[in-house]
Structure formats: structure tokens, C-alpha cells
Amino acid sequence: MRRTLLAPCLLTTLACSREAPAPAEHAAAEPAVDPAPGLAREAVGRFKRELKGALTAALTEGGPIHALTVCQREAPRLATAASRPGLAIGRATLRPRNPDNLATGWKLDAYHALEQATDRATATYTAELPSGALAYAEPLVIDAVCLTCHGSVGSDVAAALRERYPDDRATGYALGDLRGIAWAEVSRAP
Question: pLDDT tens digits, residue range 123-144?
Fold first, then answer.
């Protein structure tokens, strides 16, 4: 009987006195999270909010003609302010007011993809560019405040548009139409 008790005690002692196995020296590293999509989404969202806020305030303060002046000045300024090395922000469309905003290249692809989206309120577009940069876009959808300058415009607005933008193609929209895209291009570190 003594031998019977001795064997389990000896096994228990040996098992408890063993050292835990050493951790692997080269544990698999967790994959790095790409910050580019979050950076693009946040920058585009802020740009859209700031631009809409500036235009809404301009309409309230001085009406549509004042809003046109503010848009002409503030839209490029806000895009430049939101951009920084490695991050470019802007707008693009098929029917530009400012010809510099004509959708081409990946922005044209993004426009067409977002045009087909069933839920434009939450739709986004992402693609990796040949350079390795991330292309990101969100739709710019016509809402009630946009119709003042982008819908069926009055004669005073039409005259101001002809003066500022002789080749304007950005009127005649209806509520819910896709006006264009707000886009970001984010360089990725090598």
C-alpha cells in the first residue's frame, strides 16, 4: 500500500515542479492595422461638414448670391486646409461648376460606383491606386439647402452663375440626386 501511495505523490511532485515552457522567441506578430481608411473617412467627413456649415450660414446671412461667393472662396480653401503631406482632399463631379472639379481617373470610377449605390447615405468607395495610395470617396447628395444654387435656380442666381462660372453645368438637380463625390487620396508609407 505504501508503494501505491508513493507513486502518485511522486508523479504529482514532478508535475508541479516542472517549469512552464518558455514562450516562443519569435511569436507571430499581429498584422498592422492600416490607418489610411480611417484617416480618409475622418478627413472627408470633416470637409463635408465644414463646407455645408459654411454654405448654410452664408445662405442664412446673405442669400444665394452671397452663398455662391462663399462657396467659390471657401470650398477650395477648406479642401486645402483639410489636406496635408500624404493626404489630399477634394470634390469631383460629372457636371462641374468649376472645371477643375471634373471627375477623371479613379474619381470617375468612384462617381459611377456611388451612382449605383442603393443607400447613398452610407455608401463609400475605396480602391488601392497603382502607387499604393488609398483612394476613398463619399457621395455628395443634393438636399434641400443645395437646391437653392443647384436646382431650378432663379434669374438672379442664374445671372450670378453666368458671371462667375460661364461654363456652369451644375444646375437642374433634384432632391436626392448625386451631385458628385468628396474624395481623399492617402499615401501609405513604404
Answer: 999 999 999 999 999 999 999 9
> Could you tell me the maximum CA-CA distance found in the chain, to the nearest angstrom?
110
All cell numbers assigned to 168: 456652369
d(CA 125, CA 111): 9
Question: Does residue 12 form part of some domain?
Answer: no
Quote the number of domains for the chain: 1
What are the two backbone dihedrals, phi and then psi, of residue 6, each rounded to the nearest 5 degrees?
-70, -40
Q: Tell me how far apart the alpha carbons of residues 177 and 23 are, in angstroms, rounded to a whole number.
A: 59
The domain of 162 spans: 36-186
* Residue 31 domain flag: no
Would you say 160 and 140 are in contact if contact means Cβ atoms under 8 Å apart?
no
Structure pTM?
0.80
The model's pLDDT over 75-93, given as tens digits with 9 standing for 90+, comes to 999 999 999 999 999 999 9
Grid cell at residue 76: 477650395
Domain assignment present for residue 17? The answer is: no
Euclidean distance between CA atoms 183 and 60, whole angstroms: 27
- Asked whether residue 146 is assigned to any structural domain, the reply reads yes
pLDDT in tens, 161-178: 999 999 999 999 999 999
DSSP letter (8 states) at residue 143: -
